[in-house]
From TrEMBL:
Gene3D superfamilies: 1.10.287.70. It comes from the Bacteria. PANTHER family: POTASSIUM VOLTAGE-GATED CHANNEL PROTEIN SHAB (PTHR11537:SF254), VOLTAGE-GATED POTASSIUM CHANNEL (PTHR11537). This is Potassium channel family protein. Pfam families: Ion_trans_2. GO terms for biological process: monoatomic ion transmembrane transport. Keywords: Ion channel, Ion transport, Membrane, Plasmid, Transmembrane, Transmembrane helix, Transport. It is found in: Membrane. It comes from Peteryoungia algae.
């Protein structure tokens, strides 16, 4: 009789990684939760970067995180069913670019603000949706997702504005000014006490306002509209339905929406 340990050792590495990254077993959930905690710690380091950049330990932490992200990229590649599918994921290229900013901070420091996009990686992990369900927030999944999109956008723009317009100032003051400008612009408050100079600054403000308002509207829609589940209709392909729907509203086809509540 073969023991569980022996069976585990005979499973190919790719299959084991796939189970850990996408599985629902107790071990997989613990693994995904640990990855999420590490991701949050890395994001905290990125957000605190302007305040830590002058400390001797900054580069040590920088390269340690680079090593971790490199290992994770390779692990995700091994866990993916196809290399093409792995390369088609937007977060793959975000991680690769973030890795570049960590390995070559002297040359790519202007793009360090893209590191905040790692927050999207947290929201895309299966453990994130699972935690929302266990916390009783299943019906608020769209709201949480929309809020994360807005939050990421705010800090991406803040990082961009800080890098190209306030980098010469004191780290703390410059970052706060960039955040203040971003929030005032996205909310269209427009106090005017902090503005970006030149045509490039005006174009940055325009893009920030257009995308920011769109994300605000998306968040408002998620809050006020009824909760729906994603379940493609076999007949017409309609994606969104009421959680208790029996028939498709578009074509009347009988639906069999699984109840995956936990």
């Amino acid at each position: 009789m073969v023991s569980d340990t022996e069976n585990h050792q005979t499973i190919p590495l790719r299959q084991r990684l796939t189970r850990l990254y996408y599985g629902r077993s107790t071990g997989a959930i613990r693994f995904q939760f640990a990855l999420m905690v590490i991701d949050l710690a890395i994001i905290g380091f990125f957000l605190a970067g302007p305040y830590l950049r002058d400390r001797p330990s900054y580069l040590i932490l920088d390269y340690a995180i680079a090593a971790w992200i490199a290992v994770e990229i390779l692990a995700q590649l091994a866990a993916s069913r196809t290399t093409r599918g792995f390369l088609m994921r937007p977060m793959t290229w975000v991680d690769i670019f973030v890795l570049g900013t960590l390995l070559f901070p002297q040359w790519l420091f202007n793009f360090a603000f893209l590191r905040v996009a790692r927050i999207w990686a947290v929201a895309q992990r299966p453990i994130f949706t699972l935690m929302l369900r266990r916390l009783g927030l299943k019906e608020q999944t769209d709201v949480v997702t929309s809020f994360i999109n807005l939050f990421v956008f705010l800090f991406l723009v803040t990082g961009f504005v800080y890098t190209f317009f306030f980098y010469a100032e004191d780290a703390g003051t410059g970052f706060i000014d960039a955040l203040y400008f971003t929030v005032a612009t996205v909310t269209t408050t427009g106090f005017g006490d902090i503005t970006l100079p030149g045509p490039f600054g005006k174009l940055t403000s325009i893009v920030t306002m257009i995308i920011g308002i769109s994300l605000f509207v998306r968040l408002a829609q998620s809050i006020v509209r009824p909760y729906k589940v994603t379940f493609p209709c076999p007949e017409c392909g309609l994606q969104r339905h009421d959680a208790d729907a029996v028939h498709c509203k578009a074509c009347g086809h009988t639906l069999n929406i699984p109840d995956d509540g936990l």
